[in-house]
Amino acid sequence: MTNIESFVNGTNFNGLGRPLENTKVLLAIKDSFIAEQQGLYELSYSKDQWKIHKVESTHEQANLTIGIHDLSSWWMGCVSVESLSNHGEAEVHQLDSKMLDEWFKPRYGPICFTAF
What we know:
The structure is a single chain. By secondary structure, the protein is an alpha+beta fold. Strands 3-2-1-4-5 form a five-stranded mixed β-sheet. A hairpin with an 8-residue loop joins β1 and β2. The longest helix has 8 residues. It is globular and about 50 Å long.
C-alpha cells in the first residue's frame, strides 16, 4: 500500500459492515518502506463515508498499532486483525477486533488468475 489516504477514499470499504453511529479509529502505522506514511492516522466514519487523515500527535492511545505490510494484508482480506493481534503482529486497544474485521476486512481474499 503506497498511499493510505487514496486507498480509503477509493474503496470506502464498500460492501462491508458499517458502524451504527459516527465512529473514530486511531491508527498507529509503522512503515519501513515509505517513511512519510509512518505515523498516526485518524480514520473516521460519518454519513456512510470513511475518511482518513494523518495527525501530528494526540494524547489519546492508538486503537490499533500495525505495520503497513499487515495493514495491507488485512484490508485486502488475506488475514484478520484478530489473528494478527493473537500473534503479536498488531495491538488493539479499546475496540473489539471482531468489530474491526467486520468494518475493514473483505470476506474473501484476492484471487490470482495467473497461470504459473
